[in-house]
Amino acid sequence: MLSYQHAYHAGNHADILKHFVLTFVLKSLNKKENPYTFFDTHSGSGLYDLEDNRSLKTGEASCGIKKLLKALDDTPCFDFPDFLDYIDIVKTYAKKNLYPGSPLIERDFMRSQDFLILSELHPQEIENLRENINDSFYKKLEDSDFPSVMIHKRDGWEMLKALTPPHTKRGAVLIDPSYEESEDYELAAKTICEVFKKWSNGIFLLWYPLLAHRETEINSMLENIKSDVRRVNKNTEIVNLKLCVFDKDRHVEKSLDMVLSDEDKKNPPRLYGSGMIVINAPWKLKENGEKVVEFLKNVISFQSQEES
Ligand code: SAM
Question: What is the distance in A from the centroid of ligand 1 to the CA of 24?
Answer without folding.
Answer: 21
